[in-house]
Every structure is written in C-alpha cells, then in structure tokens.
Amino acid sequence: MSTFLGIPAPRGVGHLRGDRSFPDAARGALADSQLRRNLGHATRVIRGKRAAVVGELDDWEQLRLAGSALKAATMARLDEHLERLEQEVTARGGTVHWARDANEANAIVTRLVQETGASEVVKVKSMATQEIGLNEALEAAGIEAHETDLAELIVQLGGDLPSHILVPAIHRNRAEIREIFLREMPGVDPELTAEPRKLAMAARAHLRERFLRAKVAISGANFGVADTGTLLVVESEGNGRMCLTLPETLITVMGIEKVVPTWQDLEVFLQLLPRSSTGERMNPYTSAWTGVTPGDGPQAFHLVLLDNGRTAVLGDDLGRSALHCIKCSACLNVCPVYERTGGHAYGSVYPGPIGAVLSPQLTGVEDNASLPYASSLCGACFDACPVRIDIPSLLVKLRAQHVDEQRKRAVPSAEAIAMAAASWVMSSPRRFAAAEKGSRAGRLLGRRAGRIRTLPPPLSAWTASRDAPRPPSETFREWWARERGGDS
Amino acid sequence: MRIALFLTCLGDALHPEVGRATVTLLERLGHEVVFPTDQTCCGQMHINTGYQREALPLVRHHVATFEPYDVIVAPSGSCVGCVRHQHAMVARGAHDERLAERADAVAGRTYELSELLVDVLGVEDVGAYYPHRVTYHPTCHSLRMLRVADKPLRLLRHVRGMTLLELPESDQCCGFGGTFALKNADTSTAMLADKMRNVLSTGAEVATAGDASCLMHIGGGLSRLRSGTRTVHLAEILAST
Known about the structure:
Oligomer: heterodimer
Pfam family, one (chain A): LUD_dom
Helix content of chain B: 40-55%
Protein name (chain A): L-lactate dehydrogenase complex protein LldF
Number of strands of chain B: 8
CATH topology of the largest domain in chain A: Rossmann fold
Structural class of chain A: alpha/beta
Shape of chain B: globular
Distance between the termini of chain B: 22 Å
CATH class of the largest domain in chain A: Alpha Beta
Largest sheet of chain B: 4 strands, parallel
CATH architecture of the largest domain in chain B: 3-Layer(aba) Sandwich
Radius of gyration of chain B: 17 Å
Strand content of chain A: 5-15%
CATH topology of the largest domain in chain B: Rossmann fold
Domain Lactate utilization protein B C-terminal (chain A): 403-483
Largest sheet of chain A: 6 strands, parallel
Strand order of the largest sheet of chain B: 2-1-3-4
Helix content of chain A: 40-55%
CATH superfamily of the largest domain in chain A: NagB/RpiA/CoA transferase-like
Structural class of chain B: alpha/beta
CATH class of the largest domain in chain B: Alpha Beta
Order of helices and strands of chain B: EHHEHHEHHHEHEHHEHHEHEH
GO molecular function, one term (chain A): metal ion binding
InterPro entries (chain A): 4Fe4S_Fe-S-bd, 4Fe4S_Fe_S_CS, FTHF_cligase-like_sf, Helical_ferredxn, LUD_dom, LutB/LldF, LutB_C, NagB/RpiA_transferase-like
Number of domains of chain A: 2
C-alpha cells in the first residue's frame, strides 16, 4: 500500500486491490464445492425474497428513476452539499475531518481514539472502514476493534475476510459458524449447537459485554443529510444502534458520495435500499443522529469524510455513476460470476459487479485490470440495481480504458495483435471470405462427430471443457452464391 | 417485404444452417430475402473486449453495407444488441457524429428474428412442424438488451408436434460472454455446468435459443458430455415443416 501524492485527485489506497488476478483468485473458490453450495443457496434465497418485495410495488421503475436522478443531481453539485453537511454538523456540536485517502483517514481515527485514552472500540458494520483497513491500522496502534454486526463478527473471529457487501459471512454455513464460535469466543457454552437461535444467543452474550464496556464507537453511514447534518445507519440487528447510542465518543467514517441534500431524498432511498438488499419492505433499525445532545447518547461526535479516489471517479462523466451505489448488493446476488466465485476473488472489499467497476476506478484501471473482465456482460446487475447504474456499459468502457493503457506498451500483447488482425480481416468482405476458406483447414481437426475436442492456445481454454464446432464444408455466403448466383 | 439478412460472422463461417433456415422461413412467409454479400462482422467481440479503436472500421463497414435497406434481420440477439446499443457509442467515442447518426438510423431498422416476426410481420404461427421435446434458453442480450420478452416462446408455442419444456433458472447466463469464456474459462465452465444441469433436468432432446454463439457454448458442453441432447437455433425450428 502506498500513497499517491498527485493533485488534485489522488487515487484510492487501502483494501481495494488483490494480490492475484481475478481468474487466478477465482480458481480456488470454483474448486471448493462447499463454498459453491453455500453461495448458490444464499444468493438464490435472497434473489427470491427481493423479487417478491419488489414485485409488490407498482411504481418500482419510477422509484429507480427517481433514485438515479437524485444521485446524478447530487453528484453534479457534490462540493456544495458536502460544505453544507460540514456546516450543519459543526453547528450541532460535531467535528468534521476531511481525509484525502485511506492513510489519512486511519491516522485521523487513530488519533481521535487515542485522545479518549481508550484501548478498544466497538464497530458498526461499515464498508468505508473496511475499505481503508481501519481495524488493522488501529491494531497497529494497540487499539482493539470489535466488530458487532453478527456476520462481521463471524468473519473477524474466523480470521477471514468479508465475502459480500451485505452478508459478509455468506460463504459460511451454520456448522462452520458453530466451529468458529467454539474455537474463538471466550466463555462460550461448549454444548453450543448449530441452531440459528443458539448461535445468535451466544453472539448476543459476547457482544453485550462489549457494548457496555466500550467508551468509543466507530460507524459508517448509509446517508448523510446535508440540510441538517444528520447521519443515518440502516441495519437489521440493532447492534449498530447499541454502538451509536451507548459509548461516550462516536466516530463516523463516511465516503463523500453518501451525502444526500435533503430528508425528502430519503423517502426514495429508504424504499429502494431494504427491498434491494435484504428483500424486506423495511429494515428493522434505521438510526439517525445529529451532532451531540447533552445528556443523551455520545457526547463527542466526529465525522471523517473520506475521498480515497472518489474525486478521481467523479471526474469521469460515465464512470461517476458507480458512485451512485447505495451498497445494497442486489447486483452481487444476481450475478452468475459472483454466485460461483464469491467475493474474495475480486480482491477488493467491494466484490461483485459493482466492485468490478468501482474498485478499478478508485485505484486506476491498471491496478485492478482483471476486474472489468470478470463479467459475461449478461446484464442482470443493471436490471437489479435500484439506482440504475449501467454496470455492463461501465465494464465495457473500463475494458477500453485498459486496452488504451496497454497501447502505450512498446510491444503489443498477443491479444492486441490478434484483435488488430481480426479487425483488418473483417473490415473487408474479400479478406473475410478468404479467412473463412482458411478456417476450413480446421475440419481436419474434428473428424469425430463433427466436433473439435482440442484447439491450440488461446482457444485451448475453450476446448478444456467444451467441444468446438467443426467448420462447415460450405459457408453461408458460398451457399448463397451457389443457390442464388452471386450478389443479392 | 424486402428483408436484408445480416447473418453475423459466426453464422456465416460456422453455422450456415441458421442462415439457410432464416431464408427458408421468411420466403415461406412470402417475403423477399436479400443477402448483402459485403457484410462481415458487427464488431461486438472487439467492443466488448475493449478494442473500440479496432471496432471502428467494422462499425463503419457494417453501416455502409446495410444503409440501403429498409428492414434488416439478424438471427442473433447479441449482434442486434451490439448494433442497437454500441455502434453509435463507438462512433461517438471516435468523435464521428455523422457516423453515429447513420449507425442509429441502421440500428432503428435492424431486428432480431423473433422481433421481426412478431412485431414487424405480425405473425406468431409460422406454420412450423417439429416433433421433438424442446427447451428454450433466453439468451442474456435478447432478454436484457433487446427485451424480446416472450416473443420467441410465443412463436415456439405455435409449432406443431413440439413439446415445449420449461427451463429452470432460464434467465441465468450460460457463461459464454464472448472472450469471457477464454479470459475466465474456469468461471465460464462453472456457469455452463449449471446451465447444462438445468437443460438436462428438463429431459429435452433439443435446447434452442436465438443466438448461435450461446448455443455453440451450450452445445459444445453437451457434446463433450455426450449427453444426447443437442442444440438447434430457433430459426431452424421455425423453418421446419
């Protein structure tokens, strides 16, 4: 991890890149049949629930259009909304900090915690703090961070990484969770079974003690309302609300794209978000807080506004729509690629289709060059997205950006040479017909049942699991010329 | 009606039977089919792999080839999707606004086969007879880029002698995705495995779709399994009597 110091729009650093390319990282997941079953089952269940509650609303498409329009309008004047947010938070007793990247954000939060004298914090599930690697930064400073979201807790205790934006432990089943609890949870009942209720009770006992002890809490935010300086967290378990209300100090880390101008905007997003994410009409807990209130809740409130590459994304007129994402994860649940590989293969904390467009934009495409290709462009993500992010078009655009970067290399890749050759052949009917005749040599390869079982690289990737069609003895244009006599 | 056939490069080179079936079908319905012999490829592979600069001459060539025709049909949802949604984009990316306008005009006259039959020609019963057990896979680009909805199924339901079997999880991608099948071969194979499991669960003799490319993928897998189930393009079923 290194900080890029360019101005005015530095790229993001932190947990936005993997060590391996997507195809390489996916291989292990694809070979893990238990993981495939866990993911397949979970995504199928969530897909079904989502489809049912979305189907209840006859104005769903209008809501999506409204959500998309609100986001586009907000992004167009993001600077003004953020300044308003800062002004209102400050006026209500909060303190606003601006972090250009992950390193700055971590330094700010670490200093704020140290100033309270606390050596541990409780955390509400938050993608922003995952993105910047806050837990690791705090640990390096001798501060222990306890995740309180049940799934985040499972991931943390398992020494694992989240695999899904909304359901971080989606790749784990009940039996695996029981084993993790027995192994890692101090004082857990040794008779613990894999019954969901028993598992939840064990987690509850474990967390309750931490809630009551903690002096400092760290949260993310689903929305920040500029008009009143109010922050919101949307959740299912109530653990977030415990974090937001019990400790003395609350530190919120929020990506700058999460601001909405007014409370009225929430009317749209609070319908779109829970239906898209958990398949519920409304999420059980929506907590909102504004500055500090003497004698009630945290008495010190800090808001860290995180850029980490977002300004660079904003500069791209098509690409900026990736920042419209409300992190519902509907695109993950419908993505056939995600369903089979899980989230770890994407390297970044943002997996699935949205991760495949967001991560390369935050880091610069060359740092995440395999992600835009981690899609068959089936388009299911676009249809599911509650704010209508055209992910397939973004993927295609990012691929073009990557190819254009590659053009700067002194020696073109084999793929680039092949593509240029194909373009040359196909832009001339004469050359194309000649190439077709040439491909007939391929008939020699496939004498068995009209199928070819082995092709040379790179097409060997195809014949590893599928037969290839044997070129026909007569192309269509030859048939047409024979039957209909040449030109149309 | 005079209809220009855009067969697609894959159809011309590897699946001429799809083109012959399309000609047979449209002529049987009383239309004149012309085959502009200058046609090559719509450039989808280049565009979707990131080679927009290399796609530009193909877009230009396609537009020039099909510009003279009032109605154009392609038996491929994904190639029509490319013509309709990507040609003008590539032209605009190259700052060629004139080409973009011409591309939009050609795109507006280009139809996928089931769209042409149902929306333009107003037929659902094409008089076909196909005595087989068939399941239909709605390819992603037909389904989501073109929104052909149930048009292919409406055509298939009128085919005599045929048993149409519902495909479980039919809207899931088969895993082809053009160069995706090569760049992410393992993931593509995993998607194909599930698609084949669903196809075989129907007990169909034939899996059909409106895209030769997806069928090449599914059919390649079924052939490797020696499953006894084969793939046949929608046009061939509709042309059967």
